[in-house]
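Weekly structure sync, notes
Attendees: PL (lead), two postdocs, one rotation student
Agenda item 3: pending single-chain targets
PL asked that the sequence for the first pending target be pasted directly into the notes so everyone works from the same version. It is reproduced below exactly as submitted, 102 residues in total.
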Amino acid sequence: MGDVQVAVTQIHPIVITIRLSGDIDQRTTGQLRAALVDVIVHRKPDRLIIDLDAVTALDDVAVGVLRAGHAAADDAGLTVSVHTTGSRIAADLDEDGIHHAA
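Predicted structure, written out during the meeting:
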């Protein structure tokens, strides 16, 4: 684990997508956390999409960061959706209470 790519795309002024790929673990969650803070606190879109389609592994620390980011976005009034392709990661996120859209 330890190789992650984080890309933030703003296609529409009120919709931002954070697209992740690779393995996300405790060594790489800083990049994820920084992207979430930037989008939620500074850019403040109406809708945030977290795209995990290309994520190959997600450890407990990363799930915690996603959970905290999801809660912070909810608190800020953002609509959040987490996209997966129905992989094992989708089931893990369901178990952790992070709603996703296939």
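Discussion points:
- Helices lie at 29-43, 60-75, 88-95.
- The chain is about 40% helix and 35% strand.
Action: rotation student to compare against the earlier draft before next sync.
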